[in-house]
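anyone seen this seq b4? input:
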Amino acid sequence: MAQQTDEQINDGFVVDTEDCEEREQAYRVRGTARPITVVGNPVLHKECQDVTEFDDELAALIDDMFASQRAAEGVGLAANQIGVDLKVFVYDCPDDEGVRHTGVVCNPVIQELSPELRVLDDSNEGCLSVPTAYASLARPDYAEVHGQDPQGNPVKVRGTGYFARCLQHETDHLYGRLYIDRLSKRERKEALRQMAEGTARYETVPND
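predicted toks r here
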């Protein structure tokens, strides 16, 4: 099955909306689902290491990430959410129009937006690493991420609405920031209360 490098490019941005089911399944069936790390695990609270080796080991990690994302019913997953200290995330996420986006970004960097593009959306946000908790969080409703694909080639991804939120959320993870770190103290406390009172629907890594 074709990887991201074989996809069409539109204005320099990867087209991640074609053959999503086939590409996601190809990754997932090769992988093994791993348990999800949760808030308090040290790997979630520090910047991850850059990906420097674009090899079979990275490819196997990406397969496991897609398998883990599906098992947890997520729309995006960063490597440190399965305990791996590397800057790579995967996504299988719809935008606000219901268009599905599927792909991989290594070493992602969120691009600064010009003022006219910084329209904030304060929708609810959740996280597999903060299970059962949700909170309203304002983020730009358009995002651009530059990075590399699994073969090390430059890649650019852009999204709007819910998908833009996903791109920002997953990139944050790889720099040691959870969405609850962007909340007020009161809102963060409430999110952690929701987590404490809820039960994750997927396997998690216990914190020591």
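The helical segments are 20-30, 56-71, 161-174, 185-197. The CA atoms of residues 185 and 191 lie 10 Å apart. kinda curious what u guys think
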